Amino acid sequence: MRALDLLDRHEARWQAATRHPFLEGVREGTLPDGAFEAWLVQDYLFVLDGLGFQSRLIPRAPRTDQALIAGGLVALEGELSWFEDKAKERELDLEALRHPTNAAYREFLIGLETEPYPAAITALWAIERAYLEAWTSARPGHPDYREFVEHWTTPDFAGYVSGLEGAAGAALEGASGGERERAEETFLAVARLERDFWEMALSSEGGA
Ligand code: MP5
Fold it and tell me: pLDDT grade, residue 4 (50/70/90)?
């Protein structure tokens, strides 16, 4: 099973994760008041949780994948500072509570630590690929949000996602049947959590 096969096998659920009225609102500038701010604050907290997940993945990754994941980790740390700047510009308080949807995503990330490596790297690829596709669908983005659209659609970011695709593909190639099943389940969980994250933001209950 290649990582890309998962996208074909679960096309409808992947679409729901990466095409959403929230993203149309980003493109058209028609988001309800507070929705973008709710997303921004919650996503900052998500990235903090991602930093933990990704740092714990490095020691158990094969040597061939460690530089890729470590590079992603450094980028995540830079992204946190970027979020802090953006929050300041918009006068948003990042000391918010996690919305239950975000808390569920955090629990999922923590649970990945006990999943086999092929499932964990498939999940990381799916998380990043979801954002690449989602923000691409919002291109070029309303001027109020354009820099966010650009952030997750750069050639560098697309290159990182394809590096993860290669790593996930190689891990799945050598995986047992049981490990592949776990990878497919984690992929589906990412699709569901990503869709729920947009729903959370659009309902503006993100705690901003
Ligand atoms: C990403 C994110 C992308 N920031 N938020 C969610 C809910 N899903 C995926 O991850 P990164 O590490 O910010 O590129």
Answer: confident
Q: Is the pTM of this model over 0.85?
A: yes
Q: How far is the CA of 92 from the centre of ligand 1 (A)?
A: 19
For residue 64, the CA-to-ligand 1 centroid distance in Å is 23
Rg of the chain (C-alpha set): 16
Q: Is 127 in the pocket of ligand 1 (CB under 6 A)?
A: yes
Cis amide prior to 62 (ω within 30 degrees): no
- Is any atom of ligand 1 closer than 6 Å to the C-beta of 160? no
Report the C-alpha gap between 6 and 25 in whole angstroms. 28
pLDDT tens column, 54-104: 999 999 999 999 999 999 999 999 999 999 999 999 999 999 999 999 999
